[in-house]
Amino acid sequence: MNKNYETFARVYDAIMDDTLYDKWTDFSLRHLRKTKERKKLLELACGTGIQSVRFSQAGFEVTGLDLSQEMLDVAQKRAASAKQKIDFMQGNMLDLSQAGTYDFVTCYSDSICYMQDEAEVGDVFKQVYDCLEEDGVFIFDVHSTYQIDEAFPGYSYHENADDFAMVWDSYEDEAPHSVVHELTFFIEEEDGRFSRYDEIHEERTYEVLTYDILLEQAGFKSFKLYADFEDKEPTDTSARWFFVCQK
């Protein structure tokens, strides 16, 4: 699998809409007040490092953290070829005790939705709070309840490229506001044959009030709520909620 991981990461990057990274970057730059003294940023769930590189190019001192060492290997190469000095560390956002302290923490691409339950979400918030400097800012995005309950169930997406194919189907899960994504990849090997990989992604979101309570319990003094990369309040059909939280 490891020999293939770069192909696999490339497939992930290929199916990700590149313009989303521009939007995350723009949103971040509007809400993170960077100064000479305040520019240390921790990106949680940084994956293959596309967003970390954008932050570094924007002048932040970036550390990227991810569970997957293979993803981080790809991220290291990406940072090197972009001539950006970024620290990458393998770790779990449920334990940031060794991560150091930062002025800013981000967690994008609905990575919080991969936590198993609200206890874990609360744990992440507490970990982030503890590694933020005073007056630090934490930004994260999650799927809205509308997106999980109405948009995803029955969603199906197929992609065919020369060297890979992908099938993605989403189904409603048992817990409230939860969904299962079943992904099947067919990736071309060096000998021209295709290998099949199956992945299951389980995501779960909560009412805004739940996030509000968990943030408060973690110690955050306030947060602002936005939707879909714009500085405006969510509507009933917003797909993605953004929380900008102040320590």
Description:
Helices cover 32% and strands 33% of the residues. The protein is built from 7 helices and 11 strands. The mean pLDDT is 93. The termini are far apart. The chain is an alpha/beta fold and 247 residues long. The strands form 2 sheets. The chain has a 7-stranded mixed beta sheet, with helices on both faces. The protein has a 4-stranded antiparallel beta sheet with strand order 6-7-8-9, covered by helices on one side. α2 (19-31) crosses α3 and α5 packs across α7. The longest helix is centred in the N-terminal third of the chain and has 14 residues, at 2-15. Residues 42-136 form the Methyltransferase domain. GO terms for molecular function: methyltransferase activity. It holds the Pfam family Methyltransf_25.
Question: What would you say about this model in short?
Answer:
The protein is of the alpha/beta class.
Write the layout of secondary structure elements.
Layout: H1 2-15, H2 19-31, E1 40-44, H3 50-57, E2 61-66, H4 69-81, E3 87-90, E4 102-107, H5 118-131, E5 132-143, H6 145-151, E6 156-160, E7 164-172, E8 178-188, E9 194-204, H7 208-218, E10 222-227, E11 240-246
Parallel strand pairs: 1-2, 1-4, 2-3, 4-5
Antiparallel strand pairs: 5-11, 6-7, 7-8, 8-9, 10-11
Helix pairs in contact: 2-3, 5-7
